[in-house]
Specification:
Number of helices: 10
Largest sheet: 13 strands, mixed
Number of strands: 13
Strand content: 25-35%
Order of helices and strands: EEEEHEHEHHEHHEHEHHEEEEH
Structural class: alpha/beta
Helix content: 25-40%
Low-confidence stretches: 1-62
Mean pLDDT: 80
Radius of gyration: 23 Å
Amino acid sequence: VTQIKIASFDFATNNDDDDDDPCSYVIIITNTTKSFLSFHKYPIYKKSTSSIGTSTTTTTLFAQLSSLPRGISPFESKSTTLPQEFRSAATKAWNAAVSSATSNSCWEIEFPPLLFQGKSQFDDFDNISELNLNRDWCIEWLPSITKTASSSNTWLVLPDAKECEIAKEEWQGQRYRDAAKFTTIEEATKYYCANTSGGSSNTYTKPWGATVSDGMKQLFAKDAVPASDELMEAPSLHLVCQPGNGGPVEDWINVEQIHNNNNDCPTIIVNGALDKVRDGYYPAVFFPALAQTTNRFYAKPNQVQTLFYLRPLSDKGAYGWLFRVYPEPWQVISQTVVEKNPDKKMVQDQVVYTSDERPSFATALQKIQEAVAV
């Protein structure tokens, strides 16, 4: 891989009255194959802040924005290193979060795992394949995040007992098994119900049909070995893999219980489809308990913070990504294909919008449409 970085700092072209205007750009050209070039254009922004009690103004440059992982665009060849690239970005973000005052918060990681199979959001997929990809990604990430003292006692919280059983069968290496306790949403919730005093609200919410399912298990698997590792003490980190998405909505309710019952322990939710929960995909009239959980937890400002986020944007011929690596600003990145000749194609990444606050999906779509129209 050959990279040529060209940086220019020209503040004369910037409008000092508008902090959203770019001062200049960093341009990165990556030669990924003999016939394919990637062209990345990243604006450098300035941000003015005034000191309290003084008239001093300082200027901060955001020149170190993370670039999009290569191979995620539907216009370019797929990369086989995407899982590792995502884990590296998430590790970078988690190390920054650990040193922050809000490290004990609930955090979300969201990305399309189907990219690992060379698929996009337009391709067919099944929930089992998606869950397997998310499970394996989390397990391979465990050794990296447990290096920090604050994450040395980690629970890997999987959706159900079957998934936990498969994880322990397929990942028997000591490096991964020693990195965390493998457990389930049900067992983690019940641990806190038994060891903390949270009143009547501190209960495990059973998924619909769970009573019948539990009865069948007791009838036919009396001597079965429990899927979950034994939970002897509270953890220093909950790593929750794909709760709710493709499974029972009660998962999201129980994850709130898990997090709130240990104020000293951060929770990282990986691909929990929290956008669906926050955006009203589940009507409150049919899912009242989930609606209450959403209002007081998932949709509450600053309750769930974003660690690593990558979501495709596509509308009316415009294509791009909503992207964030904590603690950097949110980025809306437009992607276009430039054909120099039949043998040479370039994917051009252009950051068209940045914000400290998370932009709405509608705003992100608008920004990439405006970029195409220019």
